[in-house]
Design goal:
The chain has 322 residues and is mainly α. It is built from 15 helices and six strands.
């Protein structure tokens, strides 16, 4: 925050503390004009007010709370831009990449700053790291049948993957269903692990400029016909003649990268599984503008041991449906 607002917060906070201390001290004195324990002269429905001081334990509790608040504001961030004498922060602020995060962690260690998130991650690694290391020594197929491993893998999935693929892993528009046997880059354990470790970047180009409006209509008809849809046969035949520009990724038969052992991640166009929708309008949009979905890499975020366990869980999802 700016210096003005920082000063505003500090002054307002200290003024409130001073007021609270003043109220505590003021209530320690007898201003009723009568001795303690005697009537103040007020009665309501037979209830008479007596001049009784606050209980000692209550007074001590108020003073202890006040002392703690002063210590807390001095030790931790809270008074405007004042960082506190403990140099404590909840996390490294402003980082935008893993490289910046790692650099911030090292800088905090060298300067002696206490970054709460860094300490929690370090503690978790010390406590749970050996568990993940033990699982990493087993192959994925074995882990996919281990209930304990799958339980941990499911938690990793819920924390890191469910935002896109859904808690049930069935995906959604633009996000693959992981419970079926349709894989853009292959569903073998080593292929799934490679996807998780290094991520994937789709590269479906837009063909609007190359094909034109009529060409898009024709290509759409042919693509839809590959999955058995009823289309205008004249348009489909014209689209088939142009399909050579798509065959480099999808294959001349349209069965996609996996069927032809290609690394592009191009989907099978002959089935009824559509990542971005299989309606005529959706296919036209894909052909016009292309698709550029991104699957993030998890190697630096989770580490290879956790990715190995996550691979086993993802692999198990499709095996249960075979």
């Amino acid at each position: 925050m700016t210096s003005f607002w920082s000063i505003w917060v500090i002054v307002l906070t200290l003024a409130c503390l001073a007021l609270i201390l003043g109220l505590l001290l003021w209530n320690l004195k007898n201003y009723a004009g009568v001795e303690e324990g005697e009537s103040c002269g007020h009665e309501f429905d037979g209830i008479e007010e007596l001049n009784n001081p606050l209980p000692k334990w209550w007074t001590y509790m108020f003073f202890a709370t006040f002392v703690w608040s002063v210590y807390y504001l001095a030790a931790y961030p809270g008074l405007g831009n004042f960082a506190g004498f403990l140099n404590w922060t909840s996390s490294n602020q402003g980082v935008k990449s893993m490289e910046e995060s790692k650099a911030a962690i090292e800088a905090a260690k060298e300067s002696g700053n206490w970054v709460q998130l860094d300490k929690e991650v370090e503690y978790a690694q010390e406590r749970f790291g050996p568990i993940f290391e033990a699982f990493a020594k087993q192959d994925v197929v074995t882990l996919a049948k281990d209930e304990k491993a799958l339980e941990i893998g499911q938690r990793l999935f819920a924390q890191n993957c469910a935002q896109c693929h859904g808690s049930d892993a069935r995906g959604g528009m633009g996000f693959p269903n992981l419970t079926d046997n349709d894989w853009l880059y292959g569903g073998k354990p080593d292929q799934i692990k490679e996807t998780l470790l290094n991520g994937r970047v789709a590269a479906m180009p837009g063909w609007k400029d190359a094909l034109g409006e009529q060409g898009i209509d024709e290509m759409t008809a042919y693509v839809l016909s590959l999955s058995g849809r009823k289309v205008n046969q004249k348009d489909a035949d014209a689209g088939k003649a142009k399909f050579a520009m798509c065959a480099a990724c999808h294959g001349m038969d349209g069965k996609g990268s996996v069927a032809h052992n290609l690394p592009f991640g191009a989907p099978d166009l002959t089935d009824n599984i559509w990542l971005y929708g299989g309606s005529k309008r959706a296919v036209e949009e894909t052909l016009n503008h292309g698709r550029a979905g991104v699957m993030p890499a998890w190697k630096e975020i989770l580490g290879e041991d956790k990715v190995h366990l996550l691979t086993a869980y993802v692999y198990s999802l499709s095996q249960n449906n075979q």
